[in-house]
């Protein structure tokens, strides 16, 4: 490093530190800090969502539940097939039968996964509309339906992971 360049930079830096600033803010208590605390404004009453939104949320909730029921009906066959294929070699007859049963199980849960995706889209659209002032209400109902559908899909995912864990991976 060249000392000729360092010395002027150091002198400039130190001169900035040595200067005195006039106008530091005072730490004394301000008048507003002694003012009484204002009462909080009452929260606005929730607005009832439109009937179309309620119908759509109810339809998607029923769709998610139907997907859960279909998954539950297809579960025993997939469970038996994966138990039979446990330890079987990849591409063996038992392994292929188990993969087919898993595919049927995945297909049976399509309604619940599709309903969850639709509820996610509806939630985002409604949140954006509320933020822009174009709509109000309904977000809580959508969120509750999403939570219900998400619980169904998460349960299905957990059960599928157990079945897939039994099978040899290619």
Automatic annotation (TrEMBL):
Superkingdom classification of source: Bacteria
Stretch forming the signal peptide: 1-20
KW Signal (keyword) present: yes
Protein name as catalogued: DUF4398 domain-containing protein
Entry keywords, A to Z: Signal
